[in-house]
Specification:
Layout lengths: L7 H4 L12 H4 L4 H8 L5 E4 L6 H11 L4 E5 L5 H14 L2 E6 L6 H12 L3 E7 L3 H4 L2 H4 L3 E4 L5 H14 L1 H4 L3 E3 L3 H7 L3 H14 L5 E3 L1 H11 L8 H15 L3 H13 L4 H16 L5 H16 L4 H13 L6 H16 L14 H5 L38 H14 L6
Parallel strand pairs: 1-4, 1-5, 2-3, 3-4, 6-7
Helix pairs in contact: 5-6, 9-12, 11-12, 11-13, 12-13, 14-15, 14-16, 15-18, 16-17, 16-18, 16-19, 17-18
């Protein structure tokens, strides 16, 4: 591995459009970005495309080519305070270019904080997003930016990037690298140029010998042994979210908050995490602690309002509460059983006594006849049949073994006596 603390992808990052590989529809002679740089006038832009295709690099090239003061923020770990700090520095300098990576992770308040400075020309904004900006960027900000779509890099592009790095980087030149097989490193990179270059550096720094030959098997072996990638579309993403959910279900707040930290470090969308907590609150806790669903729902709303980095605290509160709560899957099992029964028995007729009778004809047909209004009876309960006749007595909800559901069981037993076996 290189003695430098700077990763290879950063060391060989292009400084001009001439060195930039890919996105020919934007950077080629006479294309929109080349024309913008030639005219000397920067405009606010949103770059929309997959990871590692040049969004950050293009922002830096624009700033350098136009000799602009340049700031960069990541929406994962920046908030309104950071945006305001950049705006104040831009005011003092007269103008600046602000690049925000993963701008779709900014919530509405954070995006609103940019509007005034963009409108007044204090900052030129370049945002990078992997998500459709039409859905993730507020309309007021979207209307002030030109959206450019960046295309996935081809295999030809990716090979050219590696060959360019071998020519440009002093450390890599000394490794006498020979790439005999490309398939594995390209597949492992997922089309992400940054990941590809850093994989090449990792492999080159691991292979021993004067001439370092990269084959598919060598690449696979080294990467599996030395890298722990959190890829939001890959296997480890599913492994970690699985471990996260199972840790909460298993009442281990320590493991749960550990996997939460892993997901945050990997750039996971906090709303994805919060949505999973809402599901878990009903599926695994349910009526053992009805407050769990309320807290999980509030967590999602708060995460949506706050965003990273502060929403990590809200997620931690919800995760540790849910993990420390009594557990029950009774509600989950009840709907499963009910759906199976419906599938098996089809559209059974509703008992006449509890049918709706909005018209005279329906009343003549005995719709609603004999219905007993529960609140007219002691304890607000009177035994009557609610199920279709052929499945009378079918028991679908079995309260769990916990204090809260034990109280439900006692209530139901008192109401229904022996009918449902509570």
């Amino acid at each position: 591995m290189s003695d430098s603390n700077i990763p290879l992808a950063e060391r060989v990052r292009p400084e001009t459009l001439l060195d930039f590989i890919g996105q020919e529809h934007l950077v080629g002679p006479g294309k929109v970005l080349e024309q913008m740089i030639r005219s000397g006038t920067a405009r606010s832009i949103l770059f929309w495309g997959p990871p590692g295709v040049g969004k950050t690099t293009l922002a830096q090239i624009i700033a350098r080519s136009l000799n602009m003061l340049f700031f960069t923020l990541s929406a994962i770990d920046s908030g309104v305070k950071d945006v305001r700090n950049v705006i104040e520095q831009a005011k003092k300098a007269g103008h600046a270019l602000l690049f925000i990576d993963e701008i779709h992770r900014f919530n509405k308040a954070q995006q609103d904080s940019l509007l005034g400075a963009v409108e007044k020309g204090i900052i030129t904004l370049i945002g990078a997003t992997t998500e459709n900006p039409s859905f993730e960027v507020i309309s007021a900000l979207l209307s002030r930016c030109q959206v450019y779509v960046l295309q996935p890099l081809t295999e030809t592009h990716l090979k050219a990037l590696v060959e360019q790095a071998i020519q440009k980087d002093n450390w890599l030149q000394k490794q006498h690298l020979v790439i005999m097989e490309w398939e594995a490193i390209i597949q492992l990179s997922g089309g992400d140029a940054r990941k590809l270059l850093n994989l090449v550096e990792l492999i080159a720094g691991t292979i021993e010998g004067e001439e370092k030959v990269i084959t598919n098997s060598v690449a696979q072996t080294i990467v599996q042994r030395k890298m722990a990638l959190y890829d939001k579309s890959g296997e480890q993403h599913y492994d970690i979210i699985s471990a996260f959910i199972k840790s909460i279900r298993g009442s281990d707040p320590n493991a749960a908050v550990y996997y939460l930290a892993r997901m945050i470090a990997g750039g996971e969308d906090p709303k994805f995490i919060a949505r999973r907590l809402i599901i878990l609150a009903s599926e695994d806790i349910g009526n053992a602690n009805p407050n769990a669903l309320l807290l999980a729902t509030s967590c999602f709303q708060a995460v949506e309002m706050i965003g990273y980095p502060e929403c990590r605290i809200i997620l931690s509160q919800a995760v540790t509460y849910l993990a420390s709560s009594a557990k029950s899957n009774a509600a989950y099992m009840a709907i499963n059983s009910a759906q199976q029964l419906v599938e098996k028995t089809g559209d059974l007729p509703v008992p006449l006594a509890i049918r709706n009778a909005p018209t005279g004809l329906m009343k003549k047909m005995d719709y609603g006849l004999g219905y007993k209004y529960s609140h007219d009876y002691p304890g607000n309960f009177i035994a009557q049949e609610f199920m279709p006749e052929t499945i009378s007595g079918a028991k679908l909800y079995e309260p769990g073994e916990n204090a809260a559901e034990a109280r439900q069981r006692d209530y139901l037993r008192n109401c229904w006596k022996e009918k449902y076996g509570y």
